[in-house]
Amino acid sequence: MKKRIIAVNSNCYHGFSIEQAIAGIRAAGFHYIELTATKGWTEHVFPDQSFARLLHVQDLLQESGLIPFAMSGHTNLMDTARIGDFVNNIRLAHFFGCDYIVSSIGEAHLEDKAVASNQVVARHIRDLTPYLEEYDMTLVLEVHGDHGTGAILKEICELVGSPRVLINYDTANAIFYGDVDVAADVAGCLDKIGYVHLKDKAGGRQEWDFPALGKGYVEFPKLFKMMDEADNLSPYSIEIEFTQAGAKDLAEVDRAVLDSAEYLRKQGFEL
Question: Where does 6-266 sit in CATH, by number?
Protein backbone atom coordinates (compact mmCIF):
# COMPACT_ATOMS: atom_id res chain seq x y z
CA MET A 1 0.00 0.00 0.00
CA LYS A 2 1.23 3.49 -0.82
CA LYS A 3 2.08 5.79 2.07
CA ARG A 4 -0.69 8.19 3.04
CA ILE A 5 -2.27 9.79 6.11
CA ILE A 6 -4.48 7.33 8.00
CA ALA A 7 -6.68 9.05 10.57
CA VAL A 8 -9.70 8.56 12.79
CA ASN A 9 -12.64 10.95 12.81
CA SER A 10 -13.37 11.97 16.40
CA ASN A 11 -17.07 11.66 15.47
CA CYS A 12 -16.61 7.92 16.11
CA TYR A 13 -16.82 9.09 19.74
CA HIS A 14 -20.16 10.85 19.29
CA GLY A 15 -21.66 11.20 22.76
CA PHE A 16 -18.27 10.98 24.44
CA SER A 17 -15.68 13.66 25.20
CA ILE A 18 -12.77 14.77 23.04
CA GLU A 19 -10.46 13.58 25.84
CA GLN A 20 -11.94 10.08 25.54
CA ALA A 21 -11.65 10.23 21.76
CA ILE A 22 -7.99 11.24 21.87
CA ALA A 23 -7.17 8.49 24.38
CA GLY A 24 -8.92 5.76 22.36
CA ILE A 25 -7.53 6.83 18.99
CA ARG A 26 -3.99 7.04 20.31
CA ALA A 27 -4.27 3.71 22.16
CA ALA A 28 -5.20 2.04 18.86
CA GLY A 29 -1.92 3.26 17.35
CA PHE A 30 -3.05 6.14 15.15
CA HIS A 31 -1.09 9.37 14.68
CA TYR A 32 -3.70 11.55 12.93
CA ILE A 33 -7.13 12.76 13.99
CA GLU A 34 -10.01 14.49 12.20
CA LEU A 35 -11.52 16.80 14.81
CA THR A 36 -15.31 17.16 14.77
CA ALA A 37 -16.97 20.57 15.08
CA THR A 38 -20.53 19.88 13.97
CA LYS A 39 -23.11 22.17 15.57
CA GLY A 40 -25.77 20.37 17.55
CA TRP A 41 -24.26 16.95 16.89
CA THR A 42 -20.62 16.46 17.91
CA GLU A 43 -18.97 19.60 19.23
CA HIS A 44 -15.63 18.14 20.33
CA VAL A 45 -14.14 21.51 19.45
CA PHE A 46 -16.23 24.52 18.49
CA PRO A 47 -15.76 28.24 17.86
CA ASP A 48 -17.85 29.19 20.91
CA GLN A 49 -15.60 27.27 23.32
CA SER A 50 -13.28 29.35 25.49
CA PHE A 51 -9.74 30.00 24.32
CA ALA A 52 -8.47 28.18 27.43
CA ARG A 53 -10.55 25.13 26.49
CA LEU A 54 -9.25 25.11 22.91
CA LEU A 55 -5.67 25.46 24.15
CA HIS A 56 -6.26 22.52 26.51
CA VAL A 57 -7.34 20.34 23.56
CA GLN A 58 -4.38 21.57 21.51
CA ASP A 59 -1.98 20.69 24.34
CA LEU A 60 -3.58 17.29 24.87
CA LEU A 61 -3.23 16.45 21.17
CA GLN A 62 0.43 17.41 21.26
CA GLU A 63 1.08 15.39 24.41
CA SER A 64 -0.68 12.39 22.84
CA GLY A 65 1.25 12.61 19.57
CA LEU A 66 -1.94 13.06 17.54
CA ILE A 67 -1.83 15.45 14.58
CA PRO A 68 -5.10 17.32 13.89
CA PHE A 69 -4.75 17.53 10.12
CA ALA A 70 -8.48 17.90 9.32
CA MET A 71 -11.68 19.22 10.82
CA SER A 72 -15.22 18.01 10.24
CA GLY A 73 -17.02 21.35 10.23
CA HIS A 74 -20.36 20.39 8.69
CA THR A 75 -22.58 23.38 7.97
CA ASN A 76 -25.39 23.86 5.45
CA LEU A 77 -23.34 25.65 2.82
CA MET A 78 -26.53 26.53 0.94
CA ASP A 79 -27.92 28.55 3.85
CA THR A 80 -26.49 32.07 3.52
CA ALA A 81 -27.31 32.69 7.19
CA ARG A 82 -24.87 29.92 8.15
CA ILE A 83 -21.88 31.03 6.07
CA GLY A 84 -20.48 33.01 9.00
CA ASP A 85 -20.59 29.81 11.06
CA PHE A 86 -18.64 27.96 8.39
CA VAL A 87 -16.02 30.70 8.11
CA ASN A 88 -15.58 30.44 11.88
CA ASN A 89 -15.03 26.70 11.44
CA ILE A 90 -12.38 27.41 8.79
CA ARG A 91 -10.64 29.76 11.23
CA LEU A 92 -10.89 27.17 14.00
CA ALA A 93 -9.41 24.52 11.70
CA HIS A 94 -6.56 26.94 10.94
CA PHE A 95 -6.00 27.46 14.68
CA PHE A 96 -5.45 23.72 15.10
CA GLY A 97 -3.13 23.58 12.08
CA CYS A 98 -5.50 21.59 9.87
CA ASP A 99 -5.04 21.36 6.10
CA TYR A 100 -8.57 20.13 5.34
CA ILE A 101 -12.07 21.18 6.32
CA VAL A 102 -14.84 18.64 5.70
CA SER A 103 -18.47 19.54 5.08
CA SER A 104 -21.50 18.20 3.33
CA ILE A 105 -23.19 20.75 1.09
CA GLY A 106 -26.52 20.70 2.89
CA GLU A 107 -29.94 20.27 1.40
CA ALA A 108 -31.13 23.25 -0.62
CA HIS A 109 -34.68 23.78 -1.75
CA LEU A 110 -35.84 26.81 -3.64
CA GLU A 111 -39.16 28.62 -3.05
CA ASP A 112 -41.00 26.26 -5.38
CA LYS A 113 -39.48 23.29 -3.47
CA ALA A 114 -37.28 22.35 -6.41
CA VAL A 115 -33.79 21.21 -5.47
CA ALA A 116 -31.14 23.80 -6.27
CA SER A 117 -29.19 23.03 -9.43
CA ASN A 118 -25.54 22.06 -9.35
CA GLN A 119 -24.75 25.46 -10.92
CA VAL A 120 -26.40 27.26 -7.99
CA VAL A 121 -24.62 25.00 -5.49
CA ALA A 122 -21.27 25.66 -7.17
CA ARG A 123 -21.83 29.42 -7.04
CA HIS A 124 -22.42 29.27 -3.27
CA ILE A 125 -19.27 27.21 -2.75
CA ARG A 126 -17.19 29.37 -5.07
CA ASP A 127 -17.94 32.31 -2.76
CA LEU A 128 -16.04 30.47 0.01
CA THR A 129 -12.78 30.12 -1.93
CA PRO A 130 -11.31 33.48 -0.76
CA TYR A 131 -11.52 32.18 2.82
CA LEU A 132 -9.90 28.89 1.80
CA GLU A 133 -7.10 30.88 0.18
CA GLU A 134 -6.66 33.16 3.19
CA TYR A 135 -6.37 30.25 5.63
CA ASP A 136 -4.59 27.87 3.23
CA MET A 137 -7.33 25.27 3.53
CA THR A 138 -8.80 22.62 1.24
CA LEU A 139 -12.56 22.12 1.44
CA VAL A 140 -13.61 18.53 0.81
CA LEU A 141 -17.31 18.06 0.07
CA GLU A 142 -18.75 14.91 1.60
CA VAL A 143 -20.90 12.41 -0.28
CA HIS A 144 -24.10 13.00 1.67
CA GLY A 145 -27.85 13.55 1.32
CA ASP A 146 -29.02 15.07 -1.97
CA HIS A 147 -25.38 14.96 -3.09
CA GLY A 148 -25.02 11.27 -2.34
CA THR A 149 -22.73 10.16 -5.16
CA GLY A 150 -19.26 10.97 -6.36
CA ALA A 151 -20.68 11.66 -9.82
CA ILE A 152 -22.81 14.55 -8.51
CA LEU A 153 -19.96 16.03 -6.48
CA LYS A 154 -17.52 15.74 -9.38
CA GLU A 155 -19.79 17.93 -11.49
CA ILE A 156 -20.06 20.47 -8.66
CA CYS A 157 -16.27 20.52 -8.12
CA GLU A 158 -15.72 21.05 -11.84
CA LEU A 159 -18.22 23.93 -11.82
CA VAL A 160 -16.49 25.52 -8.82
CA GLY A 161 -13.19 25.21 -10.67
CA SER A 162 -10.84 25.57 -7.70
CA PRO A 163 -8.06 23.15 -6.68
CA ARG A 164 -9.07 23.95 -3.10
CA VAL A 165 -12.49 22.28 -3.49
CA LEU A 166 -12.49 18.49 -3.88
CA ILE A 167 -14.57 15.45 -2.94
CA ASN A 168 -14.59 13.71 0.42
CA TYR A 169 -15.70 10.26 -0.72
CA ASP A 170 -17.63 8.58 2.09
CA THR A 171 -17.75 4.88 1.22
CA ALA A 172 -20.90 4.08 3.22
CA ASN A 173 -22.82 7.28 2.47
CA ALA A 174 -22.56 6.46 -1.23
CA ILE A 175 -24.56 3.31 -0.47
CA PHE A 176 -26.90 4.80 2.14
CA TYR A 177 -27.77 8.00 0.25
CA GLY A 178 -26.71 7.30 -3.33
CA ASP A 179 -27.51 3.58 -3.59
CA VAL A 180 -24.59 3.16 -5.98
CA ASP A 181 -21.93 0.57 -6.65
CA VAL A 182 -19.03 2.18 -4.80
CA ALA A 183 -16.25 0.94 -7.09
CA ALA A 184 -18.06 2.15 -10.22
CA ASP A 185 -18.89 5.51 -8.65
CA VAL A 186 -15.30 6.01 -7.44
CA ALA A 187 -13.95 5.14 -10.89
CA GLY A 188 -15.94 8.01 -12.38
CA CYS A 189 -14.71 10.68 -9.98
CA LEU A 190 -11.20 9.57 -8.95
CA ASP A 191 -9.58 12.70 -10.35
CA LYS A 192 -11.64 14.90 -7.99
CA ILE A 193 -11.33 12.81 -4.82
CA GLY A 194 -9.15 14.64 -2.31
CA TYR A 195 -10.15 12.85 0.89
CA VAL A 196 -11.86 9.59 1.87
CA HIS A 197 -14.04 8.66 4.83
CA LEU A 198 -13.46 4.94 5.28
CA LYS A 199 -16.86 3.88 6.60
CA ASP A 200 -18.18 0.35 6.44
CA LYS A 201 -21.81 -0.61 5.83
CA ALA A 202 -23.81 -3.49 7.27
CA GLY A 203 -27.54 -4.28 7.19
CA GLY A 204 -29.89 -2.98 4.51
CA ARG A 205 -28.63 -0.39 2.06
CA GLN A 206 -30.80 2.35 3.61
CA GLU A 207 -30.35 1.09 7.16
CA TRP A 208 -28.25 3.11 9.64
CA ASP A 209 -25.59 0.51 10.37
CA PHE A 210 -21.94 1.58 10.10
CA PRO A 211 -19.66 -0.83 11.99
CA ALA A 212 -15.89 -1.13 12.41
CA LEU A 213 -13.92 -1.59 9.20
CA GLY A 214 -14.09 -5.15 7.90
CA LYS A 215 -17.37 -5.88 9.69
CA GLY A 216 -19.61 -4.87 6.77
CA TYR A 217 -19.71 -5.35 3.00
CA VAL A 218 -17.84 -2.33 1.58
CA GLU A 219 -15.16 -3.71 -0.75
CA PHE A 220 -12.25 -1.80 0.73
CA PRO A 221 -9.45 -3.83 -0.94
CA LYS A 222 -10.88 -2.95 -4.37
CA LEU A 223 -11.06 0.74 -3.39
CA PHE A 224 -7.50 0.74 -2.04
CA LYS A 225 -6.23 -0.83 -5.26
CA MET A 226 -8.05 1.73 -7.40
CA MET A 227 -6.69 4.65 -5.40
CA ASP A 228 -3.13 3.32 -5.46
CA GLU A 229 -3.21 2.57 -9.19
CA ALA A 230 -4.46 6.09 -9.88
CA ASP A 231 -1.64 7.46 -7.68
CA ASN A 232 -4.30 9.24 -5.64
CA LEU A 233 -2.71 9.68 -2.21
CA SER A 234 -5.68 11.35 -0.51
CA PRO A 235 -5.90 10.90 3.28
CA TYR A 236 -8.09 8.14 4.68
CA SER A 237 -10.13 8.98 7.79
CA ILE A 238 -12.04 6.23 9.60
CA GLU A 239 -15.62 6.90 10.64
CA ILE A 240 -17.70 4.46 12.68
CA GLU A 241 -21.30 5.40 13.47
CA PHE A 242 -22.69 2.08 14.74
CA THR A 243 -26.50 1.68 14.56
CA GLN A 244 -29.17 4.29 15.33
CA ALA A 245 -29.02 3.17 18.96
CA GLY A 246 -25.36 4.23 19.04
CA ALA A 247 -22.53 2.52 20.84
CA LYS A 248 -23.58 0.96 24.13
CA ASP A 249 -20.55 2.30 25.98
CA LEU A 250 -17.07 3.75 25.57
CA ALA A 251 -15.48 0.30 25.52
CA GLU A 252 -17.47 -0.57 22.39
CA VAL A 253 -16.16 2.52 20.58
CA ASP A 254 -12.57 1.83 21.66
CA ARG A 255 -12.92 -1.78 20.47
CA ALA A 256 -14.31 -0.71 17.08
CA VAL A 257 -11.45 1.77 16.57
CA LEU A 258 -8.92 -0.92 17.52
CA ASP A 259 -10.59 -3.48 15.24
CA SER A 260 -10.42 -0.95 12.39
CA ALA A 261 -6.71 -0.39 13.06
CA GLU A 262 -6.07 -4.13 12.96
CA TYR A 263 -8.05 -4.46 9.73
CA LEU A 264 -6.00 -1.77 8.02
CA ARG A 265 -2.73 -3.29 9.22
CA LYS A 266 -3.79 -6.60 7.69
CA GLN A 267 -4.39 -4.71 4.43
CA GLY A 268 -0.76 -3.57 4.51
CA PHE A 269 -1.10 -0.06 5.92
CA GLU A 270 1.20 1.61 8.42
CA LEU A 271 -0.72 3.82 10.81
Answer: 3.20.20.150
CB proximity list for 160: less than 8 A, separation 6 or greater? 122, 125, 126, 129
pTM to 2 decimal places? 0.95
Helix (H) or strand (E) holding 87: helix 83-95
| Of 46, 97, 112, 103, nearest in space to 67 by CA | 97
Where do the structural domains in the chain lie, given as residue ranges? 6-266
- Predicted pLDDT at 107: 67
Task: Characterize the bridge pairing of strands 42-43 and 32-38.
Answer: antiparallel
pLDDT of residue 197: 98
- Write down the pLDDT at residue 113: 44
- In a 10 Å sphere around its CB, with 0-12 CB exposed, 13-18 middle and 19+ buried, how is residue 62 labelled? exposed
Below-50 pLDDT ranges, the chain: 109-110, 112-113
